[in-house]
Amino acid sequence: MSKHSAINRFGRSRNPAFSRNFDQGGFRTQSSSEMNAGSGFRTTSSVAESTDIMTLDGAVNKTGILLALCFTGAAVGWNIPALTFPAGILGFILALVTIFRSPSKAGTTAPFYALVQGVMLGGISLMYENLYDGIAIQAIGLTFGILASLLVCYKSGLIKPTENFRLMVGAGIGGIFILYMVSFVMSFFGSGISLLSPTNGSLMSIGLSLGIVCFASLSLVLDFDYIEEGAEKGLPKYMEWYGAFSLMVTLIWLYLEILRLLAKINSRR
Amino acid sequence: MSNALIFGGMAAISLFVFFNLGKIKASKNQTNRNNRINRFREPNQQNIIESDYKEERKDEE
Questions:
Q1: Which of A117, B32, B34, B46 is the most exposed place for a label (fewest CB within 10 A)?
Q2: Do B14 and A155 touch (CB under 8 A)?
Q3: What ipTM did this prediction achieve?
Q4: CA–CA separation, A68 vs A118, rounded Å?
């Protein structure tokens, strides 16, 4: 019997993901010394280095593009606050489309997402700025400060994301998501969870915000690891956009939570 | 004003660190460890060889 009896019996898979892996040079096309025969993500042929694979450079540059678009959108939202709510809804839809429908089209949807979310962030920042002067620049500084310090911790190996780490962060984010949903539903009945209110300066409320900021920060580490592993495995080029998009989603969440935390601390004065 | 300078400077330095350090591969301490998250699962080569071996033995019988 042939060694490839499964292929003889069932035929070759029509799944484009598999055909890309094994038939057309795969996700990774580096020198043969780096290749791992039989691996799903690397080819067995010694094809010259291709430009169609994910790299760290590409992911970081694309994050830069998304950040620039986000700041452009924020300038618009700051000057036209009426766009805040529609931009928030549109951004949420674009995020869902990118995550669940077409990660391969992230190159198209992610820039729109960044621009639209920027408009929303501009409007929200103006709202907080009217309450507490100088709060927006503090939140921006702290957000990027956390980004850089966690990147240093990740690259140096000080923080090591493992399966348990991912489970812990996932469970925490799940709990926070349920809390948001309950608060959202309750808002239709004229109430809400007062702990989430930016004007609630109680220690309990500040502690909750601090916890949420911690989980948002830790999910940045998972994003770094995702990009690092994707570049190592030689995923397709479009995954650079997807990696940059996931980093943007986390950064936007972190910024909003830091804004809320700072507002709560300021409300105690 | 000093608030904007301090936090604006912090943001600028952090972005500089991100754009430079982000392009550098993580240390071996981070990448060469057994408990890494395996998101993009690779087929287990050892199992494929074992199954082929059993098939050949069946032929011999």
A1: B34
A2: no
A3: 0.77
A4: 9
